[in-house]
User: What shape does this take?
Amino acid sequence: MRKRKEGVVVSAKTKKTIKVLVEKVYQHPLYKKVVKSYKNFLVHDEEGRCRVGDRVIIGETRPISKRKHFRVLEVVGSARVRTRELPAKMKKEEPSDTAAQPAAGSR
Assistant: This one.
């Protein structure tokens, strides 16, 4: 039985290769706290159909390259097109009249 994992595509910049972030949730053996851990996998995407944000199922395969040992089996959910607004601190502010003029006591 080959391993299968589900994750989210975080990078699709290279040809036929995507980076998938897989989240693992488990209970700590001693402290019994629920722990999340994350791991990135380089995955072979032959058709180039995956985009950033897609949820995919990947399966273990023979080594394709030095770091690629998984293939895309299916795309579970596709990424929605999102328009994000800049955070308030990133927006450019209009210079105010008082900030442009030097203070009265400066040299």
In short: DSSP finds one helix and five strands in the chain. Residues 97-100 form the longest helix (4 residues). Helices lie at 97-100.
